[in-house]
Design brief:
By secondary structure, the chain is of the alpha+beta class. The chain is about 20% helix and about 30% strand.
């Protein structure tokens, strides 16, 4: 009998060319599918909630697959982890209805971006934060963030060579926490365009450095032109925190 299995996955994306399988490139999807092949002796395709880019991390990526192997549900996590590299870990495994689809069943995703404001460049966390050792106007960033809430055309925050027939996204919340040495921004939405979060973060940091006005967000959205927004923040500060169903 075929079962549908849902995995929640954590990974350090530093050594990988993103989630999606690519020829001659190490990817998260390839590592998980290879592990499943070793366990089941079958080729199994895994579907993810979101295709993270090269260097992007996850604490709550969700993937699903189907298998007819009679493995107890609680043992899938242990079995897969035994065949995975150390920088990828299945946090949980559970059986779900056959209709479940990791991507299309998702209601919202929550991303987090981490910035180090320390004067010295990080060593241990060099692949886990964006080092930005500048004074940032936090109230100005908060003001700009409010302009992102709601349903908008996010074409101006879409990465190059991205193709989508629907640039509309509904951002339900944007939050910020900071201290003298760090800045963390979380963004939750029903969907995200390619590199959308990183483009938003790059733009918000320009607001924080007084390179653009907090009120410029509306003009950027209305421009529907990537050149209207700020730089694309580097991938290492970005984490897929949670997928909501």
């Amino acid at each position: 009998m075929m079962s549908t299995i849902k995995l929640t996955i954590e990974y350090d994306g530093t050594a990988y060319a993103g989630w999606q399988r690519q020829p001659n490139q190490p990817t998260i999807q390839a590592a998980i599918e290879t592990a499943l092949t070793r366990i089941t002796q079958q080729h199994i395709s895994v579907i993810a909630a979101g295709r993270t880019d090269a260097g992007v991390h996850a604490r709550g990526q969700v993937a699903s697959f189907q298998s007819d192997k009679p493995i107890p549900i609680h043992k899938w996590r242990l079995a897969i982890n035994s065949a995975l590299p150390h920088d990828i870990s299945v946090v949980s495994s559970e059986q779900v209805p056959e209709s479940f689809h990791a991507r299309y069943s998702a209601k919202e995703k929550l991303y987090e971006y981490r910035i180090s404001r320390h004067p010295a460049r990080p060593a241990i966390d060099r692949n886990r934060v964006w080092h930005l050792p500048y004074d940032l106007d936090i109230p100005a960033i908060r003001q700009a963030m409010s302009g992102l809430i709601g349903c908008h055309d996010f074409t101006s925050f879409q990465g190059p060579r991205a193709s989508t027939s629907d640039p509309m996204c509904v951002v339900s919340q944007v939050s910020l926490s900071s201290d003298l040495m760090s800045l963390i921004i979380q963004i939750q939405a029903n969907r995200f365009l390619k590199q959308m979060v990183r483009a938003i973060i790059g733009t918000l940091t320009e607001v924080g450095r007084h390179k653009r006005s907090p009120d410029s967000i509306q003009d950027i959205l209305q421009a529907k032109d990537r050149r209207a927004a700020g730089e694309t923040a580097p991938p290492q500060g970005l984490y897929l925190l949670q997928v909501l169903y």
